[in-house]
Amino acid sequence: MATGNPSVFLLTVNGQIEGANFPEYDNLYCKYCFVYGHDWAPTSGLEEGITQITCKGSQSSHRLIWNFPLETTFKSTNPSGWPQLVVSVYGLDVFGNDVVRGYGVTHIPFTPGQHTRTIPMFVPEPTWRLQKFTSWLLGRRPEYTDPKVVAQGEGREVTRVRSQGFVTVSFHIMTKDMKKLGYDTGPSSPLNTPSATSGWSTEEQQYTT
Amino acid sequence: MWPPVFQAKVENAQPQEVSPEPASRLQSLRDRDTVTRFDRAVSILPQLSAMIASKGVPTAEEAYNFFTFNFEPDPQEETEKISRKRKKQKKASEGGDEEGGEDDDEQEDAESEEAPLVRDEEGDLFVIEQSSQDFLEVKKAEYIGYRKCIQQESELLFRPSFRTVPTSIKLPENMKPRFLEDEGLYAGERPPVSLTNENILENRILKTEEGKKWFGDDGRIMALPDPIKESSTRPPLFQMEEDVDPALHTVYRKAVKSKYAYLYIAGSADPEGDYQLDVDVSGLIFSHHPLFSREHVLGARLAQLYDQYLTRQHNNLTGHLTDKLNGSRIALRNMLNVHGSQSLTPVMQQRISEYSLEVRNTRQLRDSEQEKDRTLLKNIVKVWKELKAQRDLQKYTNTPFKLYLRRENVDRASDEREYEDEILAEVVELEAESEEDYQRKLAEYKTQLEEWKLWRRKQVPARATLINQQMLEDEDQEASESEGPVEEGHPKPEPPEKPDFDSIEQQVREKASRIRRKPGEAILIPELSASGNITASELCPRPETARREDVTRRSLFIKILYNDKEVSRTDSRSLNSDFKVHFGQIFNLKIVNCPQSISLQVFEEIGSSCSLLAQVYIPVPEPSVLTGNGTLEEFEFSSNQRVMFDHDGVGSDVPLSFEADGSNKQTLLTSGKLSCCVSWGIGEDDVPLAPPVSQQPGGLHSGLGRLDAVTYIGASGLYDMKKIGEWATQSRLDPNDPKNGSIMQLLKLASSGEVTAPEYFRLEQLQEEFNFVTDEELERSKRFRLLRLRSQEVAEFRNYKCVPALEREVTDKVFQEYERRLKEGEEIDTRDHLDPQRARKAKQHQKIREAVINRFILAKHHFLLSDLVIEEEIPSPGYVILGLNLFKLAEPKRPLKPQRKERKKVTAQNLSNGDIKLLVNIIRAYDVPVRRPQSGRPGQSSQTAIQGSDWLISQVKYTSIKLFHTADCQQDLFLHLVQVRPFVEVSFQRTVLQTTTAEGPNPCWNEELQLPFSAPNGDYSTASLQSVKDEVFINIFDEVVYETGSIHTRVEKHWLGSVKIPFSTIYSQSRIDGTFKVNTPAVLLGYSKERSHGTNGGYDALRSLSEGAFITLFITIEPQLVPGETIREKVSRIQFDSQEDEHLLQAAERFERDAARVYLDRPCITTVIDLNGKTVFITRYIKPLNPPQELLDAFPENSQEATALVARFVSLIPSLPDRVSFSGTCDLWSTCGEFLTLLAGDEEEHAVLLCNYFLSMGKKAWLIIGTAIPEGPTAYVLTYEQSRYLIWNPSSGQYYGQYDTFCPLQTVGSLVNADNVWLNIQEYTSPMTINFDVSKANLWKPFFSRSFTHPGLSSVQVNKTHLLSHLALHSIEKILKEKIMEWRPRHPTRWNRYCTSTLKQFLPKLELSGGQDMAEGHRHELQSLLGDHRISGFPLHLPFSEIGPIIEAVHSTGVHNIQGSNVEFALAVYVHPYPNHVLSVWVYLASLVRT
């Protein structure tokens, strides 16, 4: 394990898709997938997943809870193309059609430690008003050809979207060998630079109070 | 009052009586004046009395009537009375009427019953009546008319008019308004005020005094410019319907005082870096306290004096000075003694005078100190005496002080002598001094005398002549010198007195007796002790006990304030009777902020109330003062509170006298000494918890400015190295301090002169800092090169995964291929290619391909909405799609007749090796060639013996069967005799799978084979999959079992034919379903292409034109991949510039769109993209082109043959799908010229070329745009000859009749010729069911019609002169032989030369005949061989493009797999050159087994 000169660094993402806040909708489920660059490869864990359908509780305000675990490890040689988590939320409409309720994306945090991200979600809008009506009627809303579209910037200018709700995701990030490869993502600490330790380490988690 | 029940009854009984009442009531209301309640009495009583007076007894009815009256005092009743009174008055005037009489009766009756009541009250009522008449005046309300009102108001009120005020009023007289704007000056915009309001304001202002001062020069009210900004500067807060954006949520956090609020001690960021101050509060002593008794005051004074005395004794200043004086004297004396006789040098004199001066000063100092000592001693004694007197006076003691005066006797003689010596010495010195003084004064006097004399002499003549001036001068002088000789301007100097030496001695002695003890007198040493007894409280008088009680009530505590904040306080300690308080507490203060002040507040508590006595500021200790070595210091404090007591306490700020007569009053203030110690703490490991010296707050005033360079030298100075240097030296920066490291570095550089401040201005001054390596290094780095090439999407690296993280891990190998390609750009490598010209063409093709790809990579980065978003098409108004879709809503969820659902499509991104499988379903085959019985083989079974015995017979049979289709018995016999056991082998990407073996020429397998698929480089992107060049080979083999010996059997498989389907086709079609013609070799040795003669004779008729074997297949990919979309639309949108007319393009687009909307499955193409990326109308491609002349010359008389030859020629041009060559970017149409140059193209190019040749040959030909199997959308050629339509497959050269069942063309979408494009608008699309007559407008919709005529588009084609090629490739044979040997690594491969040469001779004939009908002759030729060899073999025919496909085809036949010891091979290659470098390659493969 403790190789002197690593050639890849590892990024472990643990966490969960905690829930969402969609004030107008209920009975939603969520799909997630990771988008990453050429130099990245998943080494373990699921790259894609789909949650259970959840509906709002009576007492809690508007939260939809999934608590869907994420556990993936990536290896990479290059921070370019850092993995992004793409989430897309679907649900049934009045007619029982499965329609998309939101797309969202966030980069995996790159500092080790715990993070919580609130992802704003959006859906593509129909081009014409009539389409809006028919799509509502037929339950076939505009969808992205691929949810991963939201992870890229190219070609987004042709779409129009409407924002819709939020999804909360929590991450626990661990990295290995990033420092050895010269990528310092930890919080800057002026005093002590921790000695490079072998094996997994939550690199530099120092909370100065 | 009357009971209500009664009243109600009455009313019921007499309704009519009541009715008249309201009228009168109303009337009364109208006439009523202001009445008060008193009026009732006034009105009723006279009435009653009148009633009584006028009438007798009333009637019963009247009485009732009367009773029903409500006598309650309400206004109605009142008014009734009044009305009655009036009536009565009326009655009186008229002489009375009936009603009035009744009324009166009634009242009288009431009176009679009520009389006593009324009478009782009468007296009171009269009193009231009297008073009301006296004080009240009843009067009408005054009404002032509206106009008058206005008038009155107008006198008081001012209503500003809203009319515009003329400018002249607003301005001073004779002034014209001046408009600043017109003069070109800036005048700010006024805030908008409505004109009415402005006018009102102006009018209002004008009314006031000095109203005009409010108006500016322009006659308008002065106003500041409009302060409102046009755009809001605050960002708008968008409130969402329910939830605020989480980013904008207000998060409540408890206010936390920042630990390091301000002025941190540097370095205190680390938690253990806190510093600790130890404050030791030891105690305090009052030197005066209000509760002091007189004795206490004296005692305190005594103690104070004694302290002073002790201090003086300790310092022993007198002794010091005496020693010094003696030393100086001796030195002086020595000096004088040594140099006394000689003349003194000026230096010596100087020194002597200095010494004597010092002696004098020291002596004076000594004297004063001695005097102080003495006075102090005297004072002590005096205070002690006073104290004793006080004690005697009050008859009790309060203080424990006792003073002892210890005498130290001295030797009288020596003492006296010392004393005298001392005096003597002093006298001598003083004499010398005074002598010296005298001498100096004398000298002075002499010079002044001289001057004076001089002046006198001048004065005498001057007085005679200039009397007037003298007078004036005198006046002046008088003013300045009031006294003195009036006559003379200068006083005559007086000679100095001779010093009186006697008096000097006298003075010295006097002084000595005053300040020194007398010689021989004992030395008094006072000793103060606190050992005395204090008189007990019981023995003291009352005031004293009260004072003492007061003292005990008091207690004290001390608050410690750090930076003006209380941090802690001591315990409360009671005041002792000796006014000392001991605390003895140490406080450890952990500090973070710089200490600015430490102070202690002394509080005195009396009962529950406490008061601040005093505050003591304590200096912040030096960092070196640590807890161990800190000494207790005493800080004095005092308070100016005025306190007075009625007991013996002297109070504070109160005059106090100890004299009996009350004189010599003193005022004492509360004061005392606080003893405490502040020092820095020491940590656990003996580390001082003191801040570093430079951070010491003691240097807050001196050092702070210096430590901060900016405040010291100013921000601009930071650029000046010199200034920084100066500052650094002045502030004495610690060079070892890491915090100063950067500055030190800078200074070092600056002093070494390497860094000079740039004299130019840099716009991006941090540019260099952001360059993380130099450009050269970046160039050199292989890793960055790799990354860069990848981001440029260079073909080799476009999908490169996992670029190594470290430079050293990037091998040079990665770039080899790329670099080689770059090099090849210039020189064409002919090594790999057999044909140099072909290689050049391949290179050329490659270049075009790259150019196109690069262009389309650009296009790929343009996105359409449809590329990103899937949405429902907007329903067109012409079709009620919406309605249909609405019907869908009502559809049952599980219909009884379910429709086939599309499989789920998988995007290609998440796939990896092994995920994709190719499903090949082999259903059945028709007309598989059957074995031909072989002759003369020994050891064969009986069946084969029969076969072999009669070769000729069977030959005859064959021909007879073929020719006459008869003789069922013969056929049966034949079928029994000859069999075939075919199986299918599918090979794809070198994976080979096979079906089970079936029997007979029409086998049915119905088997599914799954072949794994792996994409090149593991890249499953759409583009990559589209460019997969691999083909699926479906080979039909015959399994032949030979029995060798008795037990062993040998299985051989003989190739019968194959079908090739490119993967790209499968990928783009997603499934391939149909019956395909098996590509059987022209000659199959040992097999005959028998037509099976099953019972279904009718089926044969449909196959009249088609020959050969067929196989039914279903091929698909599991999971279904999303086929790559063409970017045709996109390309046309991007508008690679087109030369077509805009109208035409629009019409074409419309035409295509309409076609696509109505007929989804009918391909229709009107515009295509040429190799330059330009959009070209399709008809331009069609133009008669001359085929190569030699093709026409070959069969000058037989046009049928010539046509076939031309088709063959076209089909021999290698086919290369565009989506392979251009990696699926789009369908590019090259012109025929380009096509013939490149020698590679799609079906479209083949079709266009064939169509053009046919046109040139005088045929009626069209291009069919349709779909075919397995190609999918493709182009075929339709010809019309001899009143029938023929469909030509341009890639194979085959033609089919319109009604051919096995025609691969499935649908016909549109037809194209040079003039027009027709869209198929018939009901069906299959070629068998449609009419090809394009002149019928109801069947074919033309593009150019009468409304939109053909604009006369010129063709893009040019007639190309065909070159002849005389090239034969001999190396192919060698390569193939090597390959076969290579594939048989464990067996020797023997080549039968004889057979090879025979085959070689045969191949040209095959070429000539087009591969048909040559079997018989060939068979005869091989006859000799067949005698002792069992031979199986076949010729392969391929168009030549490269050697690779030929090798692949040879491999797929599996000839090399034949094992056995006695097998021999024969391989012959023949390349037939066609014009224009089109080559037809024949490879004859045969295996021979010696029997």
TrEMBL record, chain A:
<comment type="similarity">
    <text>Belongs to the B9D family.</text>
</comment>
<dbReference type="Pfam" id="PF07162">
    <property type="entry name" value="B9-C2"/>
</dbReference>
<dbReference type="InterPro" id="IPR010796">
    <property type="entry name" value="C2_B9-type_dom"/>
</dbReference>
<comment type="function">
    <text>Component of the tectonic-like complex, a complex localized at the transition zone of primary cilia and acting as a barrier that prevents diffusion of transmembrane proteins between the cilia and plasma membranes. Required for ciliogenesis and sonic hedgehog/SHH signaling.</text>
</comment>
<keyword id="KW-0966">Cell projection</keyword>
<dbReference type="GO" id="GO:0036038">
    <property type="term" value="C:MKS complex"/>
</dbReference>
<comment type="subunit">
    <text>Part of the tectonic-like complex (also named B9 complex).</text>
</comment>
<keyword id="KW-0963">Cytoplasm</keyword>
<dbReference type="GO" id="GO:0060271">
    <property type="term" value="P:cilium assembly"/>
</dbReference>
<feature type="region of interest" description="Disordered">
    <location>
        <begin position="184"/>
        <end position="209"/>
    </location>
</feature>
<feature type="compositionally biased region" description="Polar residues">
    <location>
        <begin position="186"/>
        <end position="209"/>
    </location>
</feature>
<keyword id="KW-0206">Cytoskeleton</keyword>
<keyword id="KW-0970">Cilium biogenesis/degradation</keyword>
<protein>
    <recommendedName>
        <fullName>B9 domain-containing protein 1</fullName>
    </recommendedName>
</protein>
From TrEMBL, chain B:
<dbReference type="InterPro" id="IPR056288">
    <property type="entry name" value="CEP76_C"/>
</dbReference>
<dbReference type="Pfam" id="PF17661">
    <property type="entry name" value="DUF5523"/>
</dbReference>
<dbReference type="Pfam" id="PF24652">
    <property type="entry name" value="CEP76_C"/>
</dbReference>
<dbReference type="InterPro" id="IPR028928">
    <property type="entry name" value="CC2D2AN-C2"/>
</dbReference>
<feature type="region of interest" description="Disordered">
    <location>
        <begin position="75"/>
        <end position="123"/>
    </location>
</feature>
<feature type="domain" description="C2">
    <location>
        <begin position="937"/>
        <end position="1076"/>
    </location>
</feature>
<feature type="compositionally biased region" description="Basic and acidic residues">
    <location>
        <begin position="487"/>
        <end position="513"/>
    </location>
</feature>
<dbReference type="Pfam" id="PF24656">
    <property type="entry name" value="CEPT76_peptidase"/>
</dbReference>
<dbReference type="GO" id="GO:0035869">
    <property type="term" value="C:ciliary transition zone"/>
</dbReference>
<dbReference type="InterPro" id="IPR052434">
    <property type="entry name" value="Tectonic-like_complex_comp"/>
</dbReference>
<protein>
    <submittedName>
        <fullName>Coiled-coil and C2 domain containing 2A</fullName>
    </submittedName>
</protein>
<feature type="region of interest" description="Disordered">
    <location>
        <begin position="1"/>
        <end position="32"/>
    </location>
</feature>
<dbReference type="Pfam" id="PF00168">
    <property type="entry name" value="C2"/>
</dbReference>
<dbReference type="InterPro" id="IPR056290">
    <property type="entry name" value="CEPT76/DRC7_peptidase-like_dom"/>
</dbReference>
<feature type="compositionally biased region" description="Acidic residues">
    <location>
        <begin position="95"/>
        <end position="114"/>
    </location>
</feature>
<dbReference type="GO" id="GO:1905515">
    <property type="term" value="P:non-motile cilium assembly"/>
</dbReference>
<dbReference type="InterPro" id="IPR041510">
    <property type="entry name" value="DUF5523"/>
</dbReference>
<dbReference type="InterPro" id="IPR000008">
    <property type="entry name" value="C2_dom"/>
</dbReference>
<dbReference type="GO" id="GO:1904491">
    <property type="term" value="P:protein localization to ciliary transition zone"/>
</dbReference>
<feature type="region of interest" description="Disordered">
    <location>
        <begin position="469"/>
        <end position="515"/>
    </location>
</feature>
<feature type="compositionally biased region" description="Acidic residues">
    <location>
        <begin position="472"/>
        <end position="486"/>
    </location>
</feature>
<dbReference type="Pfam" id="PF15625">
    <property type="entry name" value="CC2D2AN-C2"/>
</dbReference>
